[in-house]
Give the backbone structure.
Amino acid sequence: MNLNRLALGLAISGLAIGALWDTGPDPQLETAWTAPNTVVVTLPASTTTLSSSTIVTTTTVPPTTTTTLPAVPVDHVCYEWLPTMLEAGWPADPDILATALTIMWRESRCTPTADSGPDHGLMQINRYWCKPSRYSEAGWLQDRGLVVDCDSLFDPITNLRSALAIWLYSLDRNGDGFLPWTTYSGA
């Protein structure tokens, strides 16, 4: 057995293991004792690939993110859908979100597969919005690129994006975005 290869292998293994625990430069290592005939290699902390001639260390740390949800009580009906509503683009206004979650409860009991015949999904969007009519050859939601057909409304994010588009349309036209939902009791 070649002792030089063994020493090189142990040195590489030690460096690789050390790289896994590296938390930054250690000032004590700069003054640490090294055995005679030992090669000390200092590498940037941002690179790791191990081969017989090269040691490179790569460290990827995902960014830390903190998400703060709007002040809607955690025990509010359908609260589990709040993050999805925000992802769909709903305004982070606690009053608007609480009203929308209440409507969701009344319409579907928070069930994305709810189907009452003409109404589909979480917000029970009526097929009027996704069927051809005298106002829209393909359908109002199709014209906006939100759905392919009415069955698309069973997907929670598609349903909530479509509900938002309807809400915005009603808000602009009527001054109240929730009027299209018959379970809405008014402001």
User: Anything to note?
Assistant: The beta strands are 48-50, 55-57, 119-120, 125-126.
